Here is the input.
Amino acid sequence: MTLFGSLPDLTTFEFNVVDNMFSLTVATMGAAALFFFFGRTLVAPKYRPALMVSGLVVAIACYHYFMIRLSWQGAYKFGEDSFTATGKGFNDFYRYADWILTVPLLMVELIAVMSLAKGLARPLLIKLVVAAALMIGLGYPGEVTNDWKTLVLFGVLSTVPFLYILYVLWVELGKAIATQPEAVQTLLSLARIVIVVTWMFYPIAYAIRGDSLPGAIPGIVPEKSGLGVVGTQVGYAIADITAKAGFGLLIFFIARTKSELLTEEERAEQVKAAGVMV
Here is the structure.
């Protein structure tokens, strides 16, 4: 959907589906932030940075979804039997502002909880963070266009760093996962799968924006219908909840499991180094 483009009329049901989904997302992200920030005391000091990053990710998302919902409510007004555009426009840039910050941080979470040696962690982190930022940056021009060719072009371009991320996660990071305690290898593998599966929601939502593209998708999304805008916004929200709050929970369980596997000597050393009680 265009940043400030024309919006289709929506039924009361269509408007409320999106509005309620935004409300649910704000609540979920806010609750997750509190859990991760306060729950960091339940893991060993060396894994607490991962939970702090998890909390930061959902806190940023909570703020942006609050702003997205305000913009959504300002973009529509209720008429006789439907919601019509007010002309103020719907500022969807909040979502990209969120992604450009949080998507690279998701990669930081994963590397931080693995607690790899600096010589191994730093190159992996640089590759994943840069590729994630490129993926989001290249997708934005396609998000705000009214031209199908531009949408497809930048959709393809943003797919290139995404494929590179998959390569790093499955090939390079896969070797590092094999060195992790057996009890957390399954959780780490699941975390990779969650990243891929949830990120697949984004191109689907990206492609069904029939509300602002001339011709829309013949036979699938009618031009200027509410289906495109509703499907896009609901799809993005579901993907964000899973990719941020859901992924963060996996990071917590990984950190918790690894903390329980520490020996008394290792735990004592960490407490001494952190200067706090675990």
